[in-house]
Structures are given as structure tokens and as C-alpha cells.
Write a structure and sequence with these properties.
The protein has 267 residues and is α/β, with parallel strands linked by helices. The chain folds into 2 domains: 8-236, Phosphoenolpyruvate-binding domains (TIM Barrel, Alpha-Beta Barrel); 240-267. The protein is 42% helix and 13% strand. The protein contains 11 helices and 8 strands. The chain has helices spanning 8-17, 29-37, 49-52, 64-77, 96-108, 124-132, 148-151, 161-177, 189-198, 219-222, 240-257, and strands at 21-25, 42-45, 82-86, 114-116, 137-142, 181-185, 203-206, 214-217. An 8-stranded parallel β-barrel has the order 1-2-3-4-5-6-7-8, surrounded by 7 helices. The two termini are 38 Å apart. The structure holds 3-methyl-2-oxobutanoic acid. Residues 25, 44, 46-48, 86, 183, 185, 206, 216, 218 line the site of 3-methyl-2-oxobutanoic acid.
Length: 267
């Protein structure tokens, strides 16, 4: 029997009831299934796959083709969670036509049920066109990794009054443009609380404190698989990188010493 599907309307109802939303990232079918079975509400096929899956320095090299490939695999593997495809760098910045066409590809070719875009007021026209075309859009403010070369680093955003006011304004503009939820990345907790109270749609925090309507982490961070750096906001629920290394080293030892395979593992 197929389980109940999470919709954007259900996420809104969760916020209204004060129920927290649990979101995580996935790039392929094994983790997509694990997350879905664990009860995750939203699975984001994040362009973080450029850093986590492909090993790039930033997310900027990720292409539409790569995102569509991974999003299709995840969407085909998930029954329950809302699958959101992350629009990569340059897929929506150039003009509204291209943004609309690329957003449509996530739903039509990859089976996503929503897209995510980074940015505020400057991209509100594109968000509105996508929403008008029936494409649910998730916004993303604060530390937006596609602007990393402009920011000059991965530090906390909107610590000063002017940037905080601008972020609040952007959040309201995006809500008016029709986003169904808003990711807030690496901003002060009190500001995330203010945004969450001001807008009707759910906020999903990552490094934005406990007052957001939901939380998202990169799954490989939470599982201890991505070890290149460890942001303060990541809580590791497992040490799978260490466990995998130990398991593989045990295999290497067994093969070298003739301990694998055994007669029972042979035909
Ligand atoms: O790309 C990504 O995985 C993201 C989340 C961390 C929000 O944007």
C-alpha cells in the first residue's frame, strides 16, 4: 500500500499546527529510500551534491544535466516525501524564460514535485512566473552557496542590522511571489525566529537556530560521511565514514590473509 504523500499544502498545515518539518538531502536511491522510510517530510536533491558527491570545491560547477539525473533517481525512489530539485547556478539567473523552462524540466523530466532557488527580491519575478505555471517553489536566503565568491567565505550572514532588514524584506517579497517554503541558511537564530513569525509559509533552517518551522541538514554531514569540514550547526547522528573505513580495512585484511571468502561463501 502506498503511504500518504507530503504536499506543499500539508507543509503549510504543519506550520499552522506548530508541527516541525524534517528535511534532508539525497542524491541517489539508497539514501532516498532510507530517508523516506525514516519519515523525512522533504527530500531536497541539493546542488550540494557538487561538493558532497562529486568532490568539487563549491556548488558552482553543478549543471542542469547533473541535477536532472540525480533528481530523477531520487524522485523514482521516494513514495512519501516531497522531492524538491535544487536549481543550479546559471539555470535561473540569466532570464525569466530560461528560469521557467529549466524549472519545468525538474517536474517534467525528473519527476520532482517542487524546485528550490537561491536569492531574494532580484529573482522574485522568476519565482512568480514559475508559481503561475504551477511549479511549487522553495526559496533560499542567508548563506546562499551559489554566491560564495561574492560573500568571500562561508561565514554567518545577516549579522548586521542592514543585512538583517534586507533579509526580512526579501522573505516577505518571496512569500508574495508565491514560495511555499523558505530555507534560511546560517543566519542568527533571533533573525530566523523573526522571519518565521512574520511569514505564513514554513521556514526550514540550516544553521539558523531552533525557531524555524523545520530543519534541514545534508545527510552525509549528519551521518559522518562528509568529513572535509564540519560546520558548527551539524549534529552527527552516526560515524559512518569511520565505520566504512574500518569495514573496508577488515575486508582488505581478510583478502590478504586468505580469510575471505570462506568455503561457506563459495560454490
Ligand atoms: O544544496 C543543498 O543541499 C542545500 C541545503 C543545504 C539547504 O541547499
Amino acid at each position: 500500500m502506498s503511504r500518504e504523500k507530503i504536499t506543499t499544502a500539508k507543509l503549510l498545515a504543519m506550520k499552522e499546527r506548530g508541527e516541525k518539518i524534517a528535511a534532508l538531502t539525497a542524491y541517489e536511491c539508497l539514501f532516498a529510500r532510507v530517508l523516506d522510510e525514516a519519515g523525512v517530510d522533504v527530500i531536497l536533491v541539493g546542488d550540494s551534491l557538487g561538493m558532497v558527491f562529486a568532490g568539487y570545491e563549491t556548488t558552482l560547477r553543478v549543471t542542469m544535466d547533473q541535477m536532472l539525473y540525480h533528481t530523477k533517481i531520487v524522485a523514482d525512489s521516494v513514495e512519501h516525501a516531497l522531492v524538491v530539485g535544487d536549481m543550479p547556478f546559471m539555470s535561473f539567473q540569466v532570464n525569466t524564460e530560461a528560469a521557467l523552462r529549466n524549472a519545468g524540466r525538474f517536474l517534467q523530466e525528473a519527476g520532482a514535485r517542487a524546485v528550490k532557488v537561491e536569492g531574494g527580491e532580484k529573482i522574485a519575478d522568476r519565482v512568480r512566473r514559475m508559481v503561475d505555471a504551477g511549479i511549487p517553489v522553495m526559496g533560499h536566503l542567508g548563506l546562499t552557496p551559489q554566491s560564495i565568491h561574492q560573500f568571500g567565505g562561508y561565514g554567518v550572514r545577516a549579522k548586521g542590522e542592514a543585512e538583517a532588514r534586507k533579509l526580512l524584506h526579501d522573505a516577505e517579497v518571496l512569500e508574495q511571489a508565491g514560495v511555499f517554503s523558505l530555507v534560511l541558511e546560517k543566519i542568527p537564530g533571533p533573525l530566523a525566529k523573526e522571519v518565521s513569525e512574520k511569514i505564513r509559509v514554513p521556514t526550514i533552517g540550516i544553521g539558523a537556530g531552533p525557531h524555524c518551522d523545520g530543519q534541514i541538514l545534508v545527510t552525509q554531514d549528519l551521518l559522518g560521511l562528509f568529513e572535509r569540514f564540519r560546520p558548527k550547526f551539524v549534529r552527527r547522528y552516526a560515524e559512518l565514514g569511520k565505520a566504512a573505513r574500518e569495514a573496508c580495512a577488515a575486508y582488505v585484511g581478510d583478502v590478504r590473509e586468505g580469510g575471505f571468502p570462506s568455503i561457506e561463501e563459495s560454490f
